[in-house]
């Protein structure tokens, strides 16, 4: 597979992109996943949130961040004062990657090659939405957008330039759910979202 570029539509608008992405075969992940989970939100959104890849529920339902991680994200956005209709939500990789353990589908981190293969979709979303702030959720999104040297642990909550936008990286909401001290992890996550809320 040579990546998503050859599946991009001629007409670059969000609906055309979404329709084209539904039949992307730019990497092997389309084979086992249920469907492409494309980004969602208004084209005029000032905030773009970028996660890693859809999870089990997102894969079944076809929408980003509708599972447990999405509930943490929604709570954080609300408490940071970021309005839902000012947010476009997407992922670095548009198909769910998993391994089967019995009947359970266990999330697998996308490989660097898969992140690269899927990058044309993310680039096209950025070019169309032209957000003022990009909230980078976790290491995979950071790698996709800020390069392999970027360390979320060192530079979370610091606005950094990303094209015409400012990016603010934070931990992935799933990491908040898994943290030994969930309240503390959530507090750090919320503090980073508040930075993002205040840069515009
Ligand atoms: N985790 C992600 O990174 N993205 C989703 O859409 C859901 C969970
Ligand atoms: Fe295409 Fe991305 Fe899905 Fe791979 S993960 S098939 S590049 S949409």
TrEMBL record:
Keyword Metal-binding applies: yes
UniProt-listed InterPro entries: UDG_Type-4/5, Ura-DNA_glyco_family4, Uracil-DNA_glycosylase-like, Uracil-DNA_glycosylase-like_sf
SUPFAM superfamilies reported for this sequence: Uracil-DNA glycosylase-like
Any GO molecular function: metal ion binding
Keywords: 4Fe-4S, DNA damage, DNA repair, Hydrolase, Iron, Iron-sulfur, Metal-binding, Nucleotidyltransferase, Transferase
Coiled-coil spans in chain: none
Annotated Uracil-DNA glycosylase-like domain residues: 38-194
Pfam families: UDG
Any single biological process term in GO: DNA repair
NCBIfam families: UDG_fam4, UDG_fam_dom
Family: Belongs to the uracil-DNA glycosylase (UDG) superfamily. Type 4 (UDGa) family.
Name of the featured protein: Type-4 uracil-DNA glycosylase
Organism from which the protein derives: Nonomuraea jabiensis
Record lineage: Bacteria, Bacillati, Actinomycetota, Actinomycetes, Streptosporangiales
